[in-house]
Design brief:
Blueprint (H helix, E strand, L loop, with lengths): L5 H12 L16 E6 L16 E6 L6 H12 L5 E7 L9 H12 L15 H14 L8 E7 L6 E4 L3
Parallel strand pairs: 1-2, 1-3, 3-4
Antiparallel strand pairs: 4-5
Length: about 170
Amino acid sequence: MPAMSVIDEVIAANQIYSRTHELRKLTPRPERKLAVLTCMDTRLSIRTLGLKTGDAHILRNAGGIVTDDAVRSLVVSHYLLGTEEIMVINHTDCGLMHTSEEDLRTRVENRAGTAVVSPSFFYAFQNIEENVRKQLQKLRAHPWIPKTVAVRGFVYDVTTGLLREVKDV
């Protein structure tokens, strides 16, 4: 019998979980009225933020970047589901800090054997504070993110586990 793939293991674990599915009572509205845009990095979780399931909408992408899709989700989170605060969290030792757009594009093209059609940008960066500020500026400048919504940025230190707020310059 071939070894189970990780996806097969997840499906099996879900079958066990479904027998006691305790999250059915939650609604799609975040209890704490918070949305968090952060990186897909495995070292940052709701536990590291002191949150529990149902407290916040957690949006993840490589780098914690304010993309069109992130804005779409944040707009839905606010207007449809009642969030009133947005946190943007980047983290130390991010993979996107260890490359450049050109290097990453070349790596993908060489391994895939074809030119990259989409995505048009990977949003590599070197300065984490500058990157957080850039993401905050994109959100604050967007006409569909009301000025009444608190938008704040942070760097999560993967070594210490601490969040540090990034202030506007």
